[in-house]
Amino acid sequence: MLDGKVALITGAAQGIGFAISEAFAKNNADVVLTDYNPQVAEVAQKLNVKYQGNIIGLVMDVTDDDSIQKGLDKTMDKFGRLDYVVNNAGGGVLKPFAELTNEDFDSTVNLDLRGTFKCMRAEIQLFLKQGSGSIVNCGALGSVYCPGGFGAYNAAKNGVMGMTMAAAVDYADKTIRVNCIAPGLTKTLLNPEEFVNKMVPTVPMKRYETADEVAKLFVFVASEATFMTGQTILSDGGVSAGLK
Predict the structure, then answer these.
(1) For 55-80, what is each residue's pLDDT tens digit?
(2) Residues 119 and 105: beta-carbon distance below 8 Å
(3) What is the C-alpha to C-alpha distance for residues 108 and 115, in angstroms, rounded to an integer?
(4) C-alpha of 113 from chain center
(5) What's the pLDDT at 53?
(6) Average pLDDT, whole number, for the chain?
(7) Do the Cβ atoms of 59 and 75 come closer than 8 Å?
(8) 153 catalytic, yes or no?
(9) Is 6-235 assigned to CATH 3.90.700.10?
(10) How far from each other are the two terminal CA atoms of the chain, in whole angstroms?
(11) Are 17 and 10 in contact (CB under 8 A)?
């Protein structure tokens, strides 16, 4: 149980980010849900009632330095500490490579890669002052196995994996761990059901991953894997091992 610990999750209003937030709440952590969507406050309140914990929602834009800093400052003002961060916010344009426009590429990289960089930088600065902390970034199976149409998204998520390693090495001796989890085929409201059903036959386990399943892994890596840093963990039903 994570009594007295504080976790902050970006992109938490729905999908995997919400599931991760709920998984932390189930383990008795205090949880800060952040999202650019103002509904995050309402979502957090519902979790707070369900788990009777200290759970709050903050509007935060991961592409904006001031917004990120305000979110971290409000967290520290409320709880006085921050133990775990999950940089989950992301998304992107999915098109065949030659059909991507400059705007498609730039917007995807700005959210997934640059946004994660901005968050990590501010979080690490906070953890250095605090003396410890754990970051888990959200990668993507598409970085190692690509069904097509993921050019911009894969470029960004590969960058996230690289930043994870770089930051992990830089701060391994400062009691700051940085890891990455790459979910496989996961059914969420953000993942079209038609696409999920189409891809299920390519998964050796012949099913999709639920958001609740992968959320447990985020909590474990953030809080329990205390000698792990710089790693990208694939949770993919065997896809990266081979096709069946």
Answers:
(1) 999 999 999 999 999 999 999 999 99
(2) no
(3) 10
(4) 12
(5) 77
(6) 94
(7) no
(8) yes
(9) no
(10) 38
(11) yes
Report residue 32: phi and psi, to 5°. Answer: -115, 110
Return the H-helix or E-strand segment holding 176: strand 176-183
Q: For residue 62, give the 3-state DSSP assignment.
A: coil
Instruction: Tokens for 88, please give them.
Output: 């989950």
Look-up of token digits 């759970």: 55
The token pair that represents 31 in the structure block: 């949880």
Per-residue pLDDT reduced to its tens digit, 191-217 = 778 878 888 988 899 999 999 999 999
**Residue with token string 């911009």:** 152
What 3-state DSSP class applies to 35?
strand
Q: Which residues contact 121 (CB under 8 A, 6 or more apart)?
A: none
Q: Is the pTM of this model over 0.85?
A: yes
6-9 and 84-87 strand pairing? parallel
Q: What is the pLDDT of residue 109?
A: 97
The residue type found at 106 is D
The Cα–Cα gap between 229 and 231 comes to 6
Catalytic hit among 84, 153, 171, 208? 153
Question: What digits encode the pLDDT tens for the residues 11-36?
Answer: 999 999 999 999 999 999 999 999 99
Asked if 19 and 187 touch (Cβ cutoff 8 Å), the reply is no
CB atoms within 10 A of CB 12: 31
Query: Is the distance from CB of 88 to CB of 111 less than 8 angstroms?
Result: no
